[in-house]
Amino acid sequence: MLKNNYKTALVTGASSGIGKETVKLLIKNNIKVYAIARRKNKLIQLEKATGCIPIVMDIRERKALEKLKKLKIDILVNNAGLGRGFTEIFNTKAKDIDTTIDTNVNAFLHLLRCITPYMIKNKKGHIINIGSIAGLYPLSNSVYGGSKGAVHLINQNLRIELSGTGVRCTEINPGRVATEFFRVAIDNIKDRKKMTTGLTVLQATDIAECILFAIKAPAHVNVSMIEVTPTEQSPGGVIIKKIEN
Ligand SMILES: NC(=O)c1ccc[n+]([C@@H]2O[C@H](COP(=O)([O-])OP(=O)(O)OC[C@H]3O[C@@H](n4cnc5c(N)ncnc54)[C@H](OP(=O)(O)O)[C@@H]3O)[C@@H](O)[C@H]2O)c1
Questions:
Q1: What distance lies between CA 70 and its chain's CA centroid?
Q2: Which residues form ligand 1's pocket by a CB distance below 6 Å?
Q3: The domain at 8-227 falls in which architecture?
Q4: Which stretch of DSSP H or E encloses residue 228?
Q5: CA–centroid distance, residue 112 to ligand 1 (Å)
Q6: Which of 82, 110, 185, 224 has the least C-beta neighbours within 10 A?
Q7: How close is the Cα of 5 to the center of ligand 1, in Å?
Q8: pLDDT tens column, 91-141
Q9: Does residue 3 carry a pLDDT above 70?
């Protein structure tokens, strides 16, 4: 049992990467975990390995989302996300804008709307919002970066909205992590490889540990934001390019 007496968690995007490792770590810490994703086979494997409770759903489906209101959740790990449109806006497909914003922003907000009322009523709870360094620094991807920039400001606003309720919220902004993210985000294999080679990237377990650190903080401590990158990756800088004639 954690110090804050949290008993239940809901983890979105639990079929792979950060979500999957978070489910494993929370269960090791005696939390009952509901695990959400679309791929049933992956969730069943995770259920067998950990004892989590699988919920097969697309978080963009509003009706299915509303049903989550009946769950008594102490910890929400608002993690499901993707990076379709991981390129310049003028090279982005229309469908990829919708998929990214519907998942990373719209569904993300609706999850907060559906899950926070129980926490507020219970005067206890912790929301972990998974952002990205792409939401803090310009990295030349308007769609994905814009969606994660929204996550950053949503978390900041949420902290104010939740003040006086006893419910905490934490934003975790990772740099590159070795997950399925880049397979989903980038179709071209060469471009995809560039994202995860040439440096020692973070592992999903590194992010799960950050999440546990925030959750385990004493009840009077709110870890509001964690930015975590590979040692060999530093965001920021200025680009200067001559206009070609
Ligand atoms: N990897 C990185 O370098 C990195 C860096 C910074 C931030 N992040 C963020 O970290 C979070 C987790 O990503 P990851 O790196 O662990 O990537 P991942 O391995 O691709 O995991 C993404 C998860 O989200 C789920 N998901 C996507 N769309 C969904 C939907 N509509 N409904 C339900 N579940 C959905 C996927 O499951 P199904 O396909 O089975 O539905 C999968 O479990 C994302 O928000 C991502 O933006 C990643």
A1: 22
A2: 12-19, 36-39, 42, 58-60, 79-83, 103, 130, 132, 174, 176-177, 179-181, 184, 204
A3: 3-Layer(aba) Sandwich (3.40)
A4: strand 225-228
A5: 17
A6: 224
A7: 28
A8: 999 999 999 999 999 999 999 999 999 999 999 999 999 999 999 999 999
A9: no
Expressed in angstroms and rounded, the spacing between residue 36 Cα and the centre of ligand 1 is: 11
pLDDT at 70: 97
DSSP 8-state secondary structure symbol assigned to residue 67: G
118 is annotated as an active-site residue: no
Given 6, 34, 118, 144, the catalytic residue: 144
When pLDDT is averaged across residues 53-68 and rounded to a whole number, the result is: 97
Residue (of 218, 112, 227) closest to 162 by Cα position: 112
62 has pLDDT over 80: yes
Pocket test for ligand 1, best of 10, 11, 12, 18 (most atoms within 8 A of CB): 18
Q: How many residues does the chain have?
A: 245
Give the Å distance between the CA of 154 and the centre of ligand 1: 18
Any residues with CB less than 8 A from the CB of 204 and at least 6 apart, and which? 17, 18, 20, 21, 177, 178, 179
Domain ranges of the chain: 8-227
Place of tokens 């519907």: 102
Q: Whose CA is nearest to atom 7 of ligand 1?
A: 132
Token pair for 145: 């970066």
The tokens of 197 are what? 């080679």
Residue 205: pLDDT band (50, 70, 90) is very high
